[in-house]
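Dear colleague,

As promised, here are the two records you asked about, laid out in our usual form so they can be pasted straight into your sheet.

NAME FIELD: protein one
SEQUENCE, THEN STRUCTURE:
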Amino acid sequence: MSLSHVQFHRYLFILLLGVVLHHITPTHGKSIRAVGGNNSNKTSDDDPLDVQSLILYKLPDDNVAAINKQINLEYSAFYAYESMAAFFDSANNPMPGCSKFLLKLADKQLNQARIFITFLNIKGGKLFLPDIKAPTIASWDSCLSAMQDALRIEIQIRYGLHDLSKRATKELDFAFEKLASDMIFKNAKSIKQIADIVRQFLRVAGGAEGRPTDRGAGEFLLDKELQKDETAFSASGLAKPLSF
């Protein structure tokens, strides 16, 4: 579920390039001048080789706080998915397919939190890691109820990502905007896939009011599909390694 080293470093290079281009555009009152010659009036403010100024084009404090809040949301989602996966991997509730799928969701959230942390470092922000609250729910009646909870988690993540996107657009921060857009797209794919699983379950089980025997059979078939390496629900790409 994690990025390959080549993909990860290529993505970070694109983000870093966006930071540099954002800093040296004319909207910030600066441009790159020819290097060379003796200019006694040259200051560090207009020095095109002021590397620290170029690299550490810092985010506003409120945006740093917003990114830290999103990181906490990603870690909280990771906790929740790990809890769900462990529940359906236990001896009393053996549903290996459901557990496997939830572990993939957990990996996704952990990966996204790390990307946000790396972005903070690139932009000269500071990471704050507050306590992560334990999941409020520790058991589920079925895989369906867990998937419905997962859908709620992803929607909560979406709200946070939309807030980051608005902030990036307001600041004309192209690297920040790209990061937020990429995360929003992947979140949309996650929501689509989880919603598809819920609809498939209800269809097989005869709807929300299906008989217990039908629901049990539907859940059994769903779990069998989720156990496969390439599941019937992998069309959105979530079951494959994340890439940019």
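NAME FIELD: protein two
SEQUENCE, THEN STRUCTURE:
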Amino acid sequence: GLNLAPVAMTGPELEPSTINVVDTVTGKSASVKLIPASAMDDIDAAVEGVKTAVGLDNLLAIDFTHPSAVNGNALFYADKGIPFVMGTTGGDRDKLMKDMEDAKHFAVIAPNMAKQIVALQAGLEDLAKKFPGAFDGYKIEVRESHQKTKADTSGTAKAVVASLKELSDDEFEVSDIEKIRDDEGAMAFRVPEDALDGHAFHRYTFTSADGTVEFALEHNVVGRTVYAEGTADAVKFLAAKLREEKEGKIFNMIDVLKAGALE
């Protein structure tokens, strides 16, 4: 099974604090001390303490943070020898991948941890490879809504757009994605009021030139449970890889799906 580490790194501008994390399914809870990234000595000491307690190969990090922290956090994990699962989007993705490849570090890096959405993405990629240009002449539109605290455009939407562009000759760009981050706009997009602080609603459409035909694809998520489930699967997958592989490697959620590492 998985056990939650008693310490975690938080934003550099935040004060140290202790939070109580509760599993609403099992009712189990655990206290976690949050240490700001600015207190590096304290973080180093905490990491070494956890490694001593659980063993060098039994500590993995889960990273869902701000886009501005993506690259620095990844380098921190590599420097400390901590394999990690990162669901954070944004940052310099090319640098992120190169840094981890150069470090030969173990990681699962994916813009979306929801297994079902990842499977849908994989299906679209396959469709685009088999039938490129099938929607030539059709206009692409993409709208996505997330809670206000999500600073960047959805990484999932960006990945889906790549496949849509293979299917259509529309000159749609990632910058054309409509990003909704206000409550009024979100509710107009059918987000329930009680989900404004935690949701991911996406709609992609192909519309014919004369407007008589429309194909639409939606995936709407309320809360974060589906991401937590996929993240747990990714952690178990990565833990197995640590014992199977001699050299570090970067994996994604497609790898997790292909391995059948799902619960």
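A couple of things worth noting about protein two: The two ends are 12 Å apart (CA to CA). The chain has eight helices and eleven strands.

Best,
R.
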